[in-house]
Amino acid sequence: MDKRTILIQLDSDPLPSVFDRVVAIDAGADEVLSYGGVRVEQVRDLVHGAIFTRGPKDLKRTAFFIGGSDVAAGERLLEEVGRHMLPQFGLRVSVLLDANGANTTAAAAVRAAARHLDLQGTPALVLGGTGPVGQRVARLLARQGADVRVGSRQRSRAETVAQAIRAQVAGARVEAVATGTAAELQAALTGRTLVIAAGAAGAVLLPRAARAACPDLKVAIDLNAVPPLGIEGVEVMDKGMQRDGLIAYGAVGVGDTKMKIHKAAIARLFERNDQVMDAEEVYALAANF
Q: Which residues is 62 bridged to in the sheet?
């Protein structure tokens, strides 16, 4: 008889996410062991508990999911989980990072764009590009060969992100742009075919007037579901809708694909015991949706 699949949920928040637990069960996990308020120094014992309780041939039925609202904390937990695996003895399990839904949301947004544009060479602007989702959107676009502008109210912050992406992605075409004033935003939009808004909830990043003045724009994707929305004129339910000559996606329209990717990523964890799933690995699943 096959052993049950067990997902170990590590959450940096005091209460582990109910949302992530429900999705994991719907995705096929038989058991979800949820730990909240997890600190780096606690990870070793959790990993050893996972890898020493089953033989190597059964370890594909155990996996880690790293969540929480703090993406930086999630990244530190992911690194620490990897440190305590023992692959030389076949003692390791697969792990998925999706803190704050950043990886699955970014993958769904880029996948939405790819339905309408050949991303190779596409001129793109990521508004709110220094946040956790925006950084991943920019990185995924760069990996697909897009010409990416990372937008932020402070160009220095955008440059930090752009430098990090150039270090991660060989040959990446990524530049930092300021978008804090109307003139800066208009300059950032010049020649762009794709814009993805990934900023903080309730902040208008692309007013209708600025959008109307950008004749090259073809696809607009807004990942903010909290009014006022990030792109004026794009509705939260839009999914490939025509809006003033643009193909538009809103947060809920993208969210349907995000949920499918999230569930597929959980299911993939139990296929092998040697997977580390970050933004790129999650995006690889998006082609199915």
A: 6
